[in-house]
Design a protein that fits this description.
By secondary structure, this protein is an all-alpha fold. Among the domains are: 1-78, NADH-ubiquinone/plastoquinone oxidoreductase chain 6, subunit NuoJ (Four Helix Bundle (Hemerythrin (Met), subunit A), Up-down Bundle); 128-164. The chain has helices spanning 3-24, 28-48, 52-76, 81-85, 92-110, 112-115, 129-140, 142-163, 175-180, 183-186. The longest helix has 25 residues, at 52-76. It is elongated.
Length: 205
C-alpha cells in the first residue's frame, strides 16, 4: 500500500462516520454540521481521483451555499423533534434496503480484482480535468445532458405551480392587461368652471 491508499481509507472512514452521525444525531444543527464534514471529506476523495473541478464545485456549491441555507432554516424554525421521530421505524425496511444496496456497491468498488474495476489512469501535468469533463458532457453525453436539463426544468416549473397560492383580496398585476392599455384608459381630461371662494360672514368683501 502506498500513502495515497492510507489517505483514501482515512477519508472513507471519516465520511462513513459523518454520514452515520447525520442520521443518528438528535440535534438538527449537529446533523447539518456533520453533513458539512461529509461534503468536505467527499471533496477530498474527489481530489484523490484527480477530479479537482468536481471537488471545488462540491465545496463551493454545497458547503458554501446549500448548507448555509440549511443551517439558517434549521436554526430559525422551531422544530418539534418529538413529532419528527413519530413513524421512524415505519421507514426501517426501505432504509435497510438502501443501506444494503450501498454496501453492495462499495464491495463491488473495493473488490476490483473480482469485478473488473480498474483504477483511474494517471495523467500528465498539462491534463485539464475541467476541459475533459466539458468534452465528455457536450460530445459523448450531450443528449443525456440535455434530457437531464429538461427534466430539471420541468421539476422547477412543477414545484412553482404546486406551491403557488393566490389569496383572495390581494392585488396583483396582469402583464397582458398592462400591454393592452391605451392613453385614453389612463388619462381623462375634465373641464370644470372656475370657482371663487365666498367670504365668510363678518369678513369684508
Amino acid at each position: 500500500m502506498i500513502f495515497q491508499d492510507y489517505v483514501f481509507y482515512a477519508l472513507a472512514a471519516i465520511l462513513l462516520f459523518a454520514g452515520l452521525r447525520v442520521i443518528t444525531t438528535r440535534n438538527p444543527v449537529q446533523a447539518a454540521l456533520f453533513l458539512v464534514l461529509a461534503f468536505f471529506t467527499a471533496a477530498g476523495i474527489w481530489l484523490l481521483l484527480e477530479a479537482e473541478f468536481l471537488a471545488i464545485v462540491l465545496v463551493l456549491v454545497y458547503v458554501g451555499a446549500v448548507m448555509v441555507l440549511f443551517l439558517f432554516v434549521v436554526m430559525m424554525l422551531d422544530i418539534n423533534l418529538d413529532k419528527l421521530r413519530e413513524g421512524f421505524w415505519d421507514y426501517a425496511p426501505l432504509a435497510g434496503f438502501v443501506g444494503v444496496l450501498m454496501a453492495l456497491e462499495m464491495v463491488m468498488v473495493l473488490g476490483s480484482k473480482h469485478f473488473g474495476y480498474s483504477a483511474p489512469e494517471k495523467h500528465g501535468a498539462d491534463y485539464s480535468n475541467t476541459a475533459e469533463l466539458g468534452r465528455l458532457l457536450y460530445t459523448d453525453y450531450v443528449y443525456p445532458f440535455e434530457i437531464a436539463s429538461v427534466v430539471l426544468l420541468v421539476a422547477i416549473i412543477a414545484a412553482i405551480a404546486l406551491t403557488l397560492r393566490r389569496r383572495a383580496g390581494t392585488k396583483h398585476n396582469d402583464p397582458a392587461k398592462q400591454v393592452r392599455v391605451k392613453r385614453a384608459d389612463r388619462i381623462r381630461m375634465v373641464s370644470m368652471p372656475a370657482e371663487k371662494d365666498e367670504p365668510a360672514e363678518g369678513e369684508q368683501k
